[in-house]
Amino acid sequence: MTKATVTRIFIAGALAATAGAVLAIAAVWIGYVNDVFVMNGPDIVGLNQSPLTWSLLGLGIVGALAIAAGLIAGLVSWIGALLNLAQLDSKTWFVVLLLLGIVNLGIFGMIAYLIVGPDGTTRAPSRRVPAAAGA
Question: In angstroms, how far is CA 42 from the centroid of its own chain?
């Protein structure tokens, strides 16, 4: 997988997760403002049934699905980046990206990789020495 493909998948996943989070937060906020939730102190104990309630529930589910899709795209881009970096002779980027992903700091490693990381699929052009003439 090329670095350009990894970049596209990562950015699409980040946008999907962000849009899903905004959508889910908006659904909860609109529900709270319009007394959709039945409250018992600070706890939500039920929902007032209305068309708005079902609409906001659907909106929240769509937001959650968008967040899940964004997280899956992030995982796919991380695995693609690791496969790309495994092709390099130097394994420094591979090890750093792998360890940051394992300790849940992979977002920082992915951003660094996308900005300045090498592409394991591009090879330096080989220089051929021309054969001696007349031999």
Answer: 33
